[in-house]
Amino acid sequence: MIPKRSQTDEEELDLFLNSIQIDNPLIKNIELPSYPGVVFSIDSSNPSVVSSSGVVTRGDQDVYVNLTVKATKNSVVRTKSFPNILVPKKDASAESLIDDYLNRLVISSPVTANITLPPLAGATVTLTSSNQAVITNGGIVTRGTTDQSVSLVVTVTKDGVTKTKIFLGLLVPKKEGGAEGEVDDYLAGLSITSPLTANIILPPFTGGTATLSSSNPAVVSNSGVVTRGTTDQTVSITVNATKDGVTKSRTFSNLMVPKDDVALTAELDAALNAINLGNLINLSTNISLPSASNGINVSWSSNQPGVISNTGVIQQDPTESKPFILTASVTKSGLTRTKTFNGSVAANVQLVLADDVTTIKSTFGTLYPVFDLSLPSSLNGTGLTWTSSNPSLMTSAGVVQETDVVSPFTLTVGNASTTQIMNMSTQDVDTGLLGGLLDTLGTIVNPVVNALGDNSQSATLPSQYGGLLGIGAKSITNWESSHPDLVTIQGYNVTIKRSQQDHLIVLRAKYEGINQPIPIIAKLSKQ
Q1: Residue 177: in which H helix or E strand, if any?
Q2: Geometric angle at alpha carbon 386, from 381 and 392, rounded to 5°
Q3: Are 224 and 199 in contact (CB under 8 A)?
Q4: pTM, entire model
Q5: Average pLDDT estimate for 489-511
Q6: CA dihedral of residues 130, 136, 140, 143 (deg, nearest 10)
Q7: Apex CA 320: angle with CA 318 and CA 322, to 5°?
Q8: How many angstroms separate the CA atoms of 350 and 69, rounded?
Q9: Are strands 518-524 and 503-511 parallel, antiparallel or unpaired?
C-alpha cells in the first residue's frame, strides 16, 4: 500500500474557498465559514455597501461591487474573486424593513436611562436582557452600587421574518450618590399592576415627595382613588419623585380598571324598574313597548307570541282571555338583566257570533225550519238582531209561514260589530194531520233549550212526537249538534260543556215523516 499524501496548505485553502458561494444579487450579509487555523477576510471594492466583515447595506440605488475572499493559513494566502456582484436597492419587503430598522438602532454605552425601543409599523419588537436585575426586558434600568455589564438582544418579527441585533457588554454604571440615586431607587421600587381594582397608595419617600398624575382623573384621581364604572377603562399613571431639587418620573402605561359589576347591575336594574306598562290584565288594545329606558336599549320577548307579539300587538281569542309573560332585557358592557311583566289579553266576545255562525254553516249548510224558531235575543250581553230575507216564508221573529213550495231564503243575525248570514229553505211537509201538528212540535224540545240556557250539565232529547187525536206517535230518529265540543249527543243523551262565553248553537233532528232534518237555534249560556 502506498498511502495518499497529506494535502498541502494551498490545496486545503483552495478546497475551502471553492465551497464558498456569494449570492448574486446579494441582499443579505455574507457568512464566512470557520475552520481551525484558517482566517477568512473580504476585500470589497465598496466597503460602504459590503463591509470587510460581510455586512451588506442596501441603499436607494442598485450597486455593483467586486469582492475577493481571502483565506490565510500558516502564512499561505489563497483568494477567490467574485466580480460584479449586484447589491440591489432596498425595497419594502419585511426583510429589508427589519434590516433597515436594526441597522439604524443604537443603544449607547454607558446606559443610565430606561430604554424605549422605537416602534416599527406592523412588527413586533422585543428586548431580552442578560441580567434583568440591571436592565429588565421592558427596558427599565436599575443602577446599583457597582458598575454592571449587560448584553441586550433586540428581536424584530414582521410578516413571518424574524431578525435580531445584539448589543454586547453595555455598561450600566453604578448609581450616583446623593438625591439622584435615592430618587432612582424609589421609582425603581414602585409597583402598580394591572388590572387596577384598589386605590393607589404611594409608599413614603423619606426626605422627599412623591406625587401621582393620572391620564383620566375620573377613573383614577391624582390622589390615587380608583372609581370603577360600568365599562372597562384604560389609564396611564405617572409617579413624580422629588428630593433636594432632583425630580424624576416613572410612567405605568395601559393600566386596566375593570368595570364594577355591582354598579352596572344597579344601573341596569334602575333602567328596568323605570319601565311602566300600566295595567296589563284583560288587554283589548295593542300596547307600546319602550325601546329604551334611562338611555339603555330595551329588547322584548313574549312567551305567547300568538297572544301578544314581541312588539305589543295583541290577538284576542273569541272565547276566553289568554295569559302571557313579557320579558324586558337590557344589556351593557356584556352584562344582561331582565324583568318580566305578567298580563292577559281579554276575550273578544264580538267575535263569538261570527265563529259560531261559521261553525253552524260548515256543519249543516242549509237549515230547513218547519216550526217556529225561538231565536235568542242576546249573546254575551250584546243584543242580537234577526232579519229574514223573505218574511212571507219566515218572519224576522222566526215565525214560519205555511207553504207548499220549497224556497231558499236567508236569515241574518247581527250584533254591535258583525253581521252573519245563514242559508235557509222551506221544505214541502204533508199538510194533512201531520201538518196540523207542526206548531206544537217545537214544544217538545223546550226542556232541552231551557237546559242549554241555564247551568245544567246534561239533558235528554225527545225520541218521538205526535200521538194526539188518534194519530200514532212518530219517531225522532237522529239528533246532531253544530258544536259537538260543547254540546255532545250520544243517542238521546246530551252532555253540556260551557266556556267563558255564550254561544249560538244549532241542534238538528230527523223527524219521521219530514224530509229534511229540522233545526233548533238556541243559546248555550256561558259557564
Answers
A1: none
A2: 160
A3: yes
A4: 0.40
A5: 91
A6: -50
A7: 110
A8: 107
A9: antiparallel
